[in-house]
Amino acid sequence: MPATSPADGTDPLAGLHDDLLAWLPSQRWFPAKGRTVAGLRTVAHATVSLPDELPRVEHAVIAVSFTDAGGSAEERYQLVLGVASSPPGDVEYAVIGRRPNDQGGQDVVYDGLADGRISRLFLALITEGQTRGPLRFVPEPGTEAPIVGPGRPLLGEQSNSSVIYGERAIMKLFRRATAGLNPDLELHRALGRQGSHEVAPLLGAIEGELDGEPMTVAMLQTYAANSADGWSMALTSVRDLLAEADLRPDEVGGDFAGEAHRIGKTVGAVHIELAAALGTRPLDAAGAAEVEEWMLERLERASGVVEGVAEQHDAIAAVYRGVSTAGPSTVQRIHGDLHLGQELRTPTGWLVIDFEGEPSKSLADRVRPDSPMRDVAAMLRSFDYAAFHQLLDWEQSVDGPDPQLERRAQEWAERNRSSFCDGYAEVTGTDPRENPALLRAYELDKAVYEVLYETRNRPGWVSIPLRSMRRLLTDTGAARR
Ligand SMILES: Nc1ncnc2c1ncn2[C@@H]1O[C@H](COP(=O)(O)OP(=O)(O)O)[C@@H](O)[C@H]1O
Ligand SMILES: O=P(O)(O)O[C@H]1O[C@H](CO)[C@@H](O[C@H]2O[C@H](CO)[C@@H](O)[C@H](O)[C@H]2O)[C@H](O)[C@H]1O
């Protein structure tokens, strides 16, 4: 199989650097929008297609370097490239650039996942368990292969890139290239082998190599047809409520409390299954000090960027001390970045997706055992987000916030947070509200993360976590007014 490697001393994407640098910032998955890019180099490159297969398919890992201090000096990303002299019209939107071909003409280079022929090839290679150059296409043992056909790219808000195969399977290409096993694949595999009904069954994966270590390229799982995500469902419920602001959340037709209760049970079941599959250990004094240390590191970072956080620095640090004083707790593998958008309501129940952890953390931090309370706190934060998201427009209008709507939003958040905890306690036997110091520390840590996340990604939303941060501090009487 023809394969080139930058180890030859040549950069196989050399002629495309400018095109790639112009294309990357417009990709939803590229997290470094707004950063100052210094340059790009190819770290790994291989041709995946056979000489007689059309279009030509290439896999590459590129490293983008930055001159600003807004994050790591260099980040690596994965690309699947389609190369053809005349690609099909429906990949027009995915064109990256052009480069000379051996026939003296020009080839078009495009984002390969946009081409149904390439996604069909990848699905077939997984089903057949083939190896192409450095890429191993691995079916999950004991699973039934889905019908092979072209994939349809998912065009929504995503940190990675997915294609859907006829409502039967979904394949996610991980965009950030990191050596090691991706926790999304690792935990789906562990939960699947545990017989979990709370995750979509894994069907296979594509594995590669980076820095001499295995790297997860992509993951294939069963597609949950006819599902809706928890964030859209929660927003519908809040919309119903705010349209009839004289009624309480339990009086409107779109009450979400039953679903919040079911989500609590689902998250509780996932925690039990992860503990059974991968073990638990007590959070001793040294472990608690370490957790507090991670929270403080994040606080320092956020304080350097957002004034509203810097002003409350000492009050926030005081709440974090709750981790050490909260009493016995255990740590285990957890989801790590749970929110309503990571829950899918299927016709039979709720599924949890996307076990990658917080996108900005290193792999070592994302796989570190942590308290299940981090996931619980993240879900509680998400109910707050859903409640107050629709008030953003009012907040920013000349009339300012409407106190009646704010009261209703707060009631909605409290009702659903409480139902979630009831459901969680029912399944695990542990009510998160019985450890308020630990819960508050994790909630505050998430709110600080969100302030930073929104400042970088959606500045118009930053008032949501800032408001929660102030509320969490007021609850302890620790806020500086
Ligand atoms: N198994 C699945 N069945 C149906 N839809 C799914 C499934 N997994 C993911 N999705 C859809 O794909 C979207 C992105 O998936 P996610 O794993 O969150 O990707 P990312 O890591 O890129 O954020 C989800 O919001 C959901 O709409
Ligand atoms: O889905 P990702 O793993 O990429 O997670 C990141 O993006 C999320 C936003 O999509 C972000 O979640 C925050 O916004 C949600 C509403 O859009 C809200 O429900 C969450 O509570 C809030 O944290 C997540 O923090 C970030 O890591």
UniProtKB/TrEMBL annotation:
EC number annotated for this UniProt entry: 2.7.1.175
Pfam families from the entry?
Mak_N_cap
Q: Which reaction does it catalyse?
A: D-maltose + ATP = alpha-maltose 1-phosphate + ADP + H(+)
Q: Where is the Maltokinase N-terminal cap domain?
A: 23-115
Q: What class of enzyme is it?
A: transferase
- Write out the entry's keywords from A to Z: ATP-binding, Carbohydrate metabolism, Glycogen biosynthesis, Glycogen metabolism, Kinase, Nucleotide-binding, Transferase
Q: In which pathway does it act?
A: Glycan biosynthesis; glycogen biosynthesis
Q: Which Gene3D superfamilies match?
A: 3.90.1200.10
Q: Which family does it belong to?
A: Belongs to the aminoglycoside phosphotransferase family.
Quaternary structure (record): Monomer.
Could you tell me what this protein is called? Maltokinase
Q: Which organism is it from?
A: Actinomycetospora chlora
